[in-house]
Each structure stands twice: as C-alpha cells, then as structure tokens.
Amino acid sequence: MTFAVTVPAQVALADVASSATMIPSTNQPGRMPATRRTRAGRKGALALAVALLLGGCGVRLETPPPGEPAPDAVEVVRRTAVADALLVSQQADAAALVAGTAPEVVAELTQISDFSDAQVAQLGGEYDSGLSDVLGDGTPTPSASAPAVAAPADVVVSLMDAAGRSRSAADTTADGPLARLLASIAASQTLSASRLAGLTGTEGPAPADPVIPVPPEVDEPTADATEPEAAASDAASGEPTPADVAPGGLSAEQLSGIVLAEDTAGYALELRAALADGALRDMAVARAAVHRARAEAWAELAGTAGTDQDPRRVAYVVPGAEVTTEALAQQLEDGLASGYATLVGVAEPGTRRVLITLLAEATTAGTTWGTPLTAFPGLPEQVTPAA
Fold first, then answer.
1. What SUPFAM superfamilies does the database record attribute to this sequence (predicted)?
2. What angle do CA 344, 354, 358 make, to 5 degrees?
C-alpha cells in the first residue's frame, strides 16, 4: 500500500510546487502573495496524498478475506486422530452416566475418557487458525460430536475404529515422531477396547499377532506341483502383505538391539521359570519361548544369525530375588514396548506395521504381568493416570 501510494503523492507535490514558483510575485488586489499561494499548494498536495493513501487502504479492504489454509497430509492425520479421541471421550462420558452401569464399567469408562483427553492434548488439540476471531464471522471450528446417550458397546466400537486408523496412519505418515505417538495411542485404544469388551460381554478386537518377516532369500516362492492354484493365488496380487514387509531404514545396530532385547527377555524368563512352579512357571515358560523365537527371527532377518555379528550371548545378567518374577517380566515387556515405539519413529513409512503390532503385543503382555495401562504405552516420557 505504501509503495503504490507514495510515488504519485510525491509527483503531485512536485508538480504543485513547480507551478507555484511560476506565478509572478505581485501584490495586486484580490491576488494572494506568492509565498501564501505556495503554502496553499503544498497543503493541497498533502491533502491529495492523504486521500490517495486512504483510497489505497480502501481498495485493500475490499479484497476477499483470508481463508482457512489447506491442511497437508500430516495435518489431516493429526486432525483425524484428535477427532477420534474426542469422540471416544464424549461417548465414554455419556456411557458412564447411564443409570445402572456397573461400578467397574464406570471406572473403566472414566479411565478411557481421561486417556482420550490426554491423547487429544498430546496431539496438539483441536485446530484453530484464529481467523474466526479476527474476521468475526462466528464460524466455529469443527469438532467431534457424540450422541446424547451412548452404551459401552459404542465406546468399544469407536476405540477399535480409532485404533485401526491410528495404526494405518502410524505406518504411512512421513512424520516419524507423529508415527511413534500414533502407534502408542493405537496400542492404548486397542487394549482399552479389549478390557471394556471383557467387562461388558461384547466383542472386542482380535489379539495382536505380530509376524516377523523372513529374509527375502528364504522367502522364495516354491513351485508345488500338487497345489499350483495355491501358489498362483499367493502371487496374484503382486503386493506384499503388511507381515511380509521388513522395516526399512533401520541400522545394523538397531536390528542387533532388537535381537539382543528379545533374547535377553527370553533368557531371564527361562531362568525365573526354573525357580517357580504352578501358573507362574507356566506363564514364564510360554513367554520365554515367544521371546527366544522372536530373537531368532530378527537375527535371521538382519542376516546375523549364526555369524560373528550375532549379538546373542550364552547368558545375561538377571536381577536377583529382590525383584519378583512379575516385576521383572513387567520391566522386560515395558522395555520392549519402548524399544519398538522408538523404532516406529525411525523406520521408513510403509514398513512399520510389524513394529506397531509388536508394540501393542508387548503392551498387552505387560498388563498380564501387572503393568498398569497408560494413555501412551511405550512412551516413558509421558506420565498419565494409571489404572
């Protein structure tokens, strides 16, 4: 505005001043002295400049008001996760107020609402550009809405839907830290859905079933003469399933860290199983076998199994009797969940699915040993209410 208006104003001022100096300096009756006429010309020029300035401002005000900026892919993902968490929170609050709801169900619904609110805050909250306040158009920011009455079964469905979207977004988003956060939130939502479904007798999510991809050289398609249709069916799509995709972008050191963590957990639980009996022994034996198998699978995928680069050891240092088997198992599972969450944040988009599933599975396993569920499993920097 200043550049477009100032130049003409300066030209007008120069023209008026120049014409004033050409008027004869006589004091004839009815004629203004030259000096006074010059002052009048200057005042007129200044008035013209002010008018031009005001006119320029008027033109600017007539342009269309600014609109909402178009969100990019990352912002769309974030807003979707916020809307999902808001809906869950509102439904959980509504369901908790229904008369006759069992106290344990109310407690679970209250925790779900608290977790959802914490997740909304950590995701950045609802988007507000501030334009509605500036322009005064009174247009509210869109937000999730919940029905006036909701049942626990509705909350279970919303949790499952939200978790599914968060898992998919965590796998594909280009924002690594956001992927890590979404994977953690999905794990919390899935486990909350399972717990609420168990309390209310409704159908919950299927258990996490992580499958560590096998190395490409081992995963060669084999021609089975007796079942050619099955072989053709497997290759029909030409696209690998999520379980077939190995995490990309991980360093050799990071892969070795996975192998070592899983093998350490297996060894520690084997040792504790030998000292236990009954149900505790059975749990430790079963879980130790899972961790040993995963350590082997990761070593195979990394290409270090049976080589000098294999990080696995014959024995590991395990805490003594001052740490109970349950507490030790919690530490091991929580550590694995944190490790997998970290890897989600650094792995390449589109290759994170197995890491996301392992995060959820380790979280679930930790709760079976007594670990309280949080709003952000695998994210030790986040502090949330415990169950």
1. Ferritin-like
2. 80
Residue 168's CB is within 10 A of a number of other CB atoms, namely 16
Nearest CA to 211 out of 101, 144, 293 is that of 293
Q: Which two tokens stand for residue 72?
A: 């990019």
For the record, the structure tokens of 69 come out as 């900026």
**Nearest 10 degrees: Cα torsion 327, 332, 338, 340:** -150
Q: What is residue 373's predicted lDDT score, i.e. its pLDDT?
A: 95
Least confident residue range of 2-16, 45-59, 88-102, 142-156: 2-16
Query: pLDDT by residue (tens digit) across 286-338?
Result: 999 999 999 999 999 999 999 999 999 999 999 999 999 999 999 999 999 99
Task: Give the mean pLDDT of 268-277.
Answer: 96
284-316 in b/e form (b: 16+ CB < 10 A) is beebbebbbebbbbbbbbbebbeeeebbbeeee
Q: Read out DSSP for 329-364?
A: HHHHHHHHHHHHHHHHHHSPTTS-HHHHHHHHHHHH
Least confident of 27-41, 101-115, 294-308: 27-41
For the chain, the first-to-last Cα distance in angstroms comes to 60
Phi, psi angle pair for 100, to nearest 5°: 90, 0
Per the rule left: phi > 0, alpha: psi between -120 and 50, beta: everything else, 293 is alpha
Phi/psi at 267 (5° precision): -60, -45
Asked if 72 contacts 55 with a C-beta cutoff of 8 angstroms, the reply is no
Report d(CA 42, CA 30) in Å as an integer: 20
CA distance 95 to 155: 8
Q: What is the pLDDT, as a whole number, of residue 41?
A: 54
Return d(Cα 185, Cα 31) in angstroms, integer: 87
Alpha-carbon distance of 8 to 16, in angstroms, equals: 12
What average pLDDT does the chain have? 81
Between residues 237 and 291, which one has the greater pLDDT?
291
Quick one: pLDDT band at residue 71, thresholds 50, 70, 90? confident
Question: Residue 228 contacts by C-beta under 8 Å, 6 or more apart in sequence?
Answer: none
